[in-house]
Structure formats: structure tokens, C-alpha cells
Design goal:
globular, mainly alpha, 3 strands, single chain, about 70% helix
Amino acid sequence: FRSRSIRAVFDHSLRLLSDGDRQTFLKLAAFQGGFTREAAQEIAGTSVAHLAAFSGKSLLQYDPVSRRYRLHALLRQYAGEILAAERLSETTLQTHMRFYGGLLQHFQRGLQGPEQTRALDRILADFQNIRAAWHWAVQSGQSGWITQALEPVYWFCIMRDRIPDGQVLIQDAQKRFKDLEEAEPASR
């Protein structure tokens, strides 16, 4: 009974949004953990005004200290189900993956220089999204993305003592791409 009541509240909240705002909001389900305004603009095509409106309707939470937004886990799950049902998830997840791959590339040089702490902190803040992008890249066979992300993820995991996290990511990729190589020898 409780899950039907929650779903009814979520359904009602989404019906109050325009079609464009609804699609924009649904794309925010791609985020795991918090996200920045820039990430939301790139991945969901949203604006600061939209984010503020979603926050005002209690669809998003904003933390002024970290300057990050967060979608409640239940709301993210609900929005993710609708996003998948409307066949918007693949494109959104591809955009999400590209954005966080670019973020890793941007901070890769900083991991070895005077901006190391800043780079590590930023990667840490987005690590749940990076992990989600990694899993999408593995699932969709994006070996090039994995290759580009491998070095910054490796250095982050070493420097921030997150070796078990790195091992899980690498093992997932090794298993997937080993399976691909066995199925398609030309893809090596």
C-alpha cells in the first residue's frame, strides 16, 4: 500500500510539470549521488532556473556549501523507470558517460601536479557518477571510454585509498571485454 501511495505522489508531481520540464527532470535520474549545475546542463539540458524550480517543488535538494544538487534515491529510481520506459535512458546515459569521461580527462593532468588535491576532491565528489558511467561503458561495450578513464581512475583509487573500488571496476571491465573478445575476435 505504501509504495502505491508514494508512486501516486510522484505521478501527481510529474503531471504538474510541462512536457519539456518533465523530460528534463527524468534525465536527472542518470545521476548517482550529487551533481553540479554544469553536469545537469550538459546531461539533462537544464538551466539554473529549472534546477531552482525543481528544488522549489521539493523534487531536488540543493546544498549551498558544496554547490551540488541531489535527487532523493526513491525519486531517482522512479524517474529512472519512466526514463527507461520512454526510451530516453540510452541517450541520456551515453551523454552522462561522455561528460564524466571528459571530467576525468580534464583532471588527469592535475592528479600529477600542484592541483592534485583539487583534482582528487573533484573526482571524489563525482565518484558515484564516474562509477555509473564506467558501468554503462562496460555494459554498452565502450572499450575506448574505459581505456581513457582507466589511468585517472587508477590514480584516484591509489591516492585516495580506494583500491577495492578500483579493483571492482577493473574486474567488471576485464570480464566484459574478455567476453567480447571471445565472441568477436576482430574487436581486440
